[in-house]
Amino acid sequence: MNIRSNWRILALSILLILSVIVISPIGSTSTSTSDSLDLNLSYGLDLSGGTRVRAPLVGWTAEEVSFVGYQESNVEETVLSQFPSLSRSDVDAKIGSDGIGTFEIFADIPVEDFKLALSRANLSYGEIRPGVTTQTRKTTLEVLNKKFDESGLTGATVQQSTTPSGQYFIIIEVPNYNSNEVRKLVEKRGSVEVMIQFPTETKEWGTVVVLTQDDIATVGTVQDPTVSIGSPHVPVTLTEEGASNFQMYMQQYGFSSQSNSNSCTNSIPRELRYCIHTVLDGDIVYSASISPGLSTSLAKGEFINSKNFVMTSTNRTNADSLRLNLRAGALPAPLDLDSGTINFVSPSLAENFKIYSFLIGLIAILAVAAVVFFRYGEIKVAFPMVITALSEVIILLGFSSGIGLALDLSHIAGFIAVIGTGVDDLIIIADEVMAEGSVSSARIFRNRFRAAFWIIGAAAVTTIVALSPLAVLSLGDLRGFAIVTILGVLIGVLITRPAYGDILKLLLKLK
Amino acid sequence: MFEFNVESFPFKKYSNKQLASIPLTLLLVSILILGGWFIATGSPVNPGIEFTGGTEITLISDGGTDPIYSTFNWPIDSIRPIATQTNAYIVTFQSSTVQPEQLELASSNAGFEVLAVQSTSPSFGAESQTLALLGIMMAFIGMAIVVFFLFRKLVPSLAVVLSALGDILIPLAIMNLLGIQLSLGTVAALLMLIGYSVDSDILLTNHILKRKGNFYESTYNAMRTGLTMTFTSLSAITVMTISSFLFGVDLLTSIGVVLIFGLLVDLLNTYLLNFSLLRWYVEGLQ
To answer: Is residue B1 in some structural domain?
Structure first.
């Protein structure tokens, strides 16, 4: 066998062997033995189970806001005063070095209200657009990653994608967990605040936020109830600045006075209580009195030395989520889960899908084999045809495994499309080469092969051009389908289908 | 071994107009159906939940379908059983008022085991629909440009493009009539059809225009190969469709159904429409 004239067969064989090595269980690091299809392939949600959430971030961004002469916190307060239902974390002024920057509001409000609020704050602004800034999206991705790390939902991936109309989506994929578990973790921002409540002369009672997530330096592990603290709690240490602000507020509003400790109980009228509230996403989740010990430490001004604070919760579950939120931080903007997509496939159904799609692929190949054997009646023509079509899929699987492509149902559809166009092309080659009786010389073979190759090449270019928009557009499942089909057609036209021509030449004994 | 007895096909008996009239009538009727659909529903096709927004939930209900109807207080669009799994059903809600978490909550309260949830918001669906249309149009235009570039002759190129147009529009109309919704899967199928369609058209055009020898001989040669191709694809896709329907793999079933119609329609478009246009073109050359 002449290597130079049969290099395509050689290339096909090498690629095939490489692919088999790559996808075979030997090359796999997985140790599970129960799985009958334990190939070294990675599977997407459809075939492994899990949840995918795609959601935009809620908010409006005013561009080119001139903050010259204003202070960040003042500006935020002023705009916020127009929206009684919103809190400090719902607005964000990002001021550049030249005093020009962006103003974001993270709430689903009418854009007119936002414009009005900016005008009332005497801010000049350029364009107002839906969505948030790049920086906010980046922070969101970081916080989401931390949330999944802390929560033990392993293997989660978080990324962003953009549509041609310019809308950004956050895409979260979590293998093996259902949509409720994922939703619970991301539907709220997870902002934790400590708010104090104290009697006042003018109003019924006053409240002030004394700590936010930014004031917390380190977070300990959840502690079981003790003699002094009657429920599960999370010890934290505050930052230098957080501790000094905290001490200042507590002294100012009377929490450093011993007589006001233990006064957050039902036996005392509400307007006379001194309470420390743990606030999660705007809701008070736990209220407690100030302990005499903390009160003393504040009175003596020693608190800023220790900086230790304890956040208390009602039960273990809430304490766990409190710790998680403290460690991961709050999402800068809420995810709008009702404006995107949610997909969940249970691991058992996904396992079925995986087995079924392999079976369906196998059945399709068998059908192809039956028809070509029936049609050509000659094993020399039909057998290599089926083997070549099969090897295209195996090479494609090897390639997918090599680049770590997570296979989904859409990719399986792509494989089937590849088998389809592949067999079509092989039929063209076989028919052209064997047209009108025997192929008497290598020269005739070459001419005929060239003619066949023009047709399959032309068809391949058309298919690739037709599918390439979908490989770029972010159209969910269709992207995977388009990419696999294009890759398959390329591998087919460049390597496997020409190799089939060479195999035919060898088998038909041409010199 | 069998051969397609293509020589018995009565090409010579019928005029170009007669041959072309069948696929052209089909194309026209399809355009009318799609147009009528557009006037009646505001959309030329029946968009599925991926495009309108809505939720599809796959669950196991041990008591059959009755508990499903009594559990959900929202309008149910369809309930389909999965053949290979007892008591498993795919329940579709096309209403935008119900959120997936409500459905999941109701399911777990009723004791259904939720196997899968697929939910799309109306706004995201509308965007996907625009994208899908854009994708199909770009694919079609791209295909047309390549075909013109390949043949560099107006009539033969137009014949291929027209045949591909029929291969997309006629199955779309059939989908409407059969109540098959447009989903991401069926869009993928329509795009695959562009590929399959052009395959056999290029083969035929290449044989007729670029080969020496008798016109009909070239046609029959191309047809023999083309029919083998289509017949092989059809058998593979038919078994794929039946098995994926039985297994409840929706995506592959919807792709399969559209491909089956498309491949059958492609036979008409290639060997009646494209052929007659080519014959008319070749006769004009002589």
So the answer is: no
